[in-house]
From TrEMBL:
Organism superkingdom: Bacteria
The name this protein goes by in its record: NAD-dependent epimerase/dehydratase
The NAD-dependent epimerase/dehydratase domain, residue ranges: 9-248
Region (Disordered): 132-152
Pfam annotation, one family: Epimerase
Matches recorded under InterPro entries: Epimerase_deHydtase, Lipid_A_modif_metabolic_enz, NAD(P)-bd_dom_sf
Basic and acidic residues composition bias: residue spans: 143-152
Coiled coil: none
Length: 344
């Protein structure tokens, strides 16, 4: 490892996004402080020097301690990705304390530094922060008019960091993510997104439910490709500083055919006929944006960083189904062993 390699504070290191970024950083000759409420597992064979720090960043003083002497901060902490969390309105103080408060705390902690180079900050936001645009393809030039409370909070956090960049407190950028899905080798966090949720239904023998008609498309970015994009953001933080950038594959995929592929892949694993894909009314937590097609033009980010998605979609889908099928098989074996033990 190089003398005095950069220290990267990864906030939210056990989350769906943060854990994937940790795996990507672990392969590099850097120092990583992995911060989360529960201790983050160190990826096997890590080349990085990884310090695991369990902390509640909403508690006084914890943010300053988490980012002390960090050259780079990746803010991937999120209140909750569970669907029920989206029912929260603007008065949900717990969500706002995390989704907005942590960004403000980070600015305050970095502003308190007496001297030294400006710390680099990479924030993981969401394409949905733009709100309904009426455009078929988003490229980052849209005016932001978020429709939901969660997106308004993420936008407020982004603006706090970009305003601090304009004031010379830090060198910050925001990467707005599309629909991210999947599991890769070493995945440790739960994916609650539509692809994995419907895969779990199919593995249980239940019909896959589709809120959308065949015209609604999603730009689906595989988790390992997303992790590489975040690390590319770290590598090019100075060139990216002061604005937000959209990530995506450039292809909007109709969810109906995608979920049909899931049903077939699950059938190959289980040896049973594919479960049906059926229409269902949207649940209470659905937002207007859930019924709108999203395709992302990420060419601006690609031009600066050289990043591009590398995992073919069929392979990404297969890895996701295989991971969840293996998970289900382990759970079934464990249940069988408990039943056998009880009978004995």
């Amino acid at each position: 490892m190089a003398v005095n390699p950069p220290r990267i504070a990864l906030l939210g290191a056990t989350g769906f996004i943060g854990s994937a970024v940790l795996r990507e950083l672990a392969a590099r000759p850097v120092r990583v402080r992995a911060v989360s409420r529960r201790p983050a597992p160190v990826p096997p064979g890590a080349r990085a020097d990884i310090e695991v720090r369990a902390a509640d960043l909403t508690e006084p003083g914890e943010m300053a301690a988490a980012v002390a002497d960090a050259d780079v901060v990746v803010l991937a902490a999120l209140h909750s990705a569970a669907p029920a969390a989206r029912l929260a309105g603007d008065g949900d103080t717990a969500a706002e304390r995390v989704d907005v408060g942590l960004a403000r705390d980070l600015v305050a902690a970095l502003a308190a530094r007496a001297s030294g180079p400006l710390p680099k900050v990479v924030f993981t936001g969401a394409v949905s922060q733009a709100g309904p645009t009426g455009k078929d393809v988003l490229d980052g030039t849209e005016d932001d008019r978020p429709a939901g409370a969660h997106d308004r909070q993420r936008l407020a956090a982004e603006r706090a960091l970009l305003d601090a960049t304009a004031r010379g407190v830090l060198c910050g950028t925001s990467l707005r993510l599309p629909t991210v899905f999947g599991y890769g080798p070493g995945s440790t966090a739960h994916d609650r997104g539509v692809v994995s949720a419907m895969t779990r239904r199919a593995l249980a023998g239940d019909p896959i439910t589709l809120w959308y008609d065949d015209s609604v498309r999603r730009d689906l970015l595989y988790i390992d490709d997303l992790a590489r994009a975040v690390v590319a953001g770290v590598d090019h933080a100075e060139a990216l500083a002061g604005r937000h950038w959209l990530l995506g594959t450039g292809e909007g995929r109709p969810l109906g055919p995608v979920l049909q592929q899931v049903a077939v892949l699950v059938s190959h694993r289980t040896g049973k006929p594919p479960v049906p894909v059926v229409s269902a009314p949207p649940p209470a937590h659905a937002e207007p944006g859930d019924l709108v097609s999203v395709t992302v033009d990420a060419s601006a980010f690609r031009a600066v960083t050289g990043w591009a998605p590398a995992t073919p979609f069929p392979e990404a889908l297969r890895r996701t189904v295989d991971h969840l099928a293996d998970e289900a098989e382990r759970a079934n074996r464990a249940r069988g062993e408990r039943v056998a033990g009880g009978a004995a």
